Amino acid sequence: MSQIIEKEKILNYVERNKTALKIIEIKVPENSHLFDIAIDFKRMAEDYTNDAIYFFEKGDYVNALSSLSYAYGWIDAGARLGLFDVKNDHIRFTLKD
User: Fold this and answer.
1) Is 21 domain-assigned?
2) How far is Cα 78 from Cα 73, in angstroms, rounded to an integer?
């Protein structure tokens, strides 16, 4: 059985991702090897969010939603690994207790 992906759901997730990207700050020192990884994680999240917007505008809601999920995965992984400071926000991010 196929389910319909609603336009409003995608727009909600786009806004969630944009908000998360505004909140996160790179936490590791610039002279650390992890700094480059943090930059990469953030760039991947931004790129996948932009891909989602592109797919959404083309009417491809399945790939838009998939891209948003990948984007948030990069954000959440960076937060969980301690690459990003997310202001102890346990609502938007999956953090260690």
Assistant:
1) no
2) 8
